[in-house]
Write a structure and sequence with these properties.
Protein name: ATP synthase protein I-related protein
InterPro entries: CGL160/ATPI_dom (IPR056309)
Helix content: 55-70%
Number of helices: 11
Strand content: under 5%
Radius of gyration: 50 Å
Number of strands: 0
Membrane topology: Multi-pass membrane protein
Structural class: mainly alpha
GO cellular component, one term: membrane
Keywords: Membrane, Transmembrane, Transmembrane helix
Length: about 300
Amino acid sequence: RTKIILPNKKPEKWSTGVAPGEYGGPPTTTKLRKYWGGKEDPITSTDLIWNRDFMDQMKKLFNDSSLDPSPSKEESSGFLSFSRVMSLDSMDVDLSKELASSSRSFLKDRRDTSKLEKASASPKWKLAPTRREQEKWDRATKAATGGSDVMFRELRRPRGDPEVQAAKDREQYFKLKNKIQVLTVGIGGVGLVSAYISYTPEIALSFGAGLMGSLVYMRMLGNSVDAMADGARGVFKGAANQPRLLVPVALVMIFNRWNAILVPEYGFMHLELIPMLVGFFTYKIATFFQAIEEAI
């Protein structure tokens, strides 16, 4: 049989927290309490909530003859004290001097503020602005009232015969329309030649298709503006008969059908969508150049 040798030490048990030094138990010595708050033992201190002699101390405090409830003899500390509170509750204390002095100071402050208000309301001499400040003010005034000045200048301008003025305006409008169309054709031609030299013929053909759509769009836009001369009826008629917003849609449809039918069956050149859209927006570049010329 196997012989089992047991250890001499007793098996450890769970701590009950009763013996000193155990978990949950009291400390092994009472000298640790002196290190909690300083040299004085906190258990025997009179400043903690477990002070059992606080009644005797309070009676001694109230019966002390050195305390004077009169607020006039008490030094001003800036804080509320028990003596001041008790003096306010007492009917034997005379506070007429303090109230009179506070009312005098209040009236004096009111006089000072009224003098300051009168001094501020009185007119003062303003210093002349420097040259730089005057230039800044002139620029700000011009920027703020520039549109109003132009409008008033146009209103003050002497008007001639309305029919002659209408003829001049109509002539100026037709010149502007023709000029924008010529600019569109010129910029489109330069872009077409540049695309043919710098890129492939397919890109040049796509740019040319977009340029044709731009010219058609400009033509429809001119007809819509021409129809405004007939009033509201002409505006409605021009907007209904000139669906110029369908031009970019038609260009996209042509691009789709061209590449899907004509290129594989008949061997035509392939079209590109981006150069086609760039060619279509050529009229925007012409309009931008015209606006810059008018501004200059």
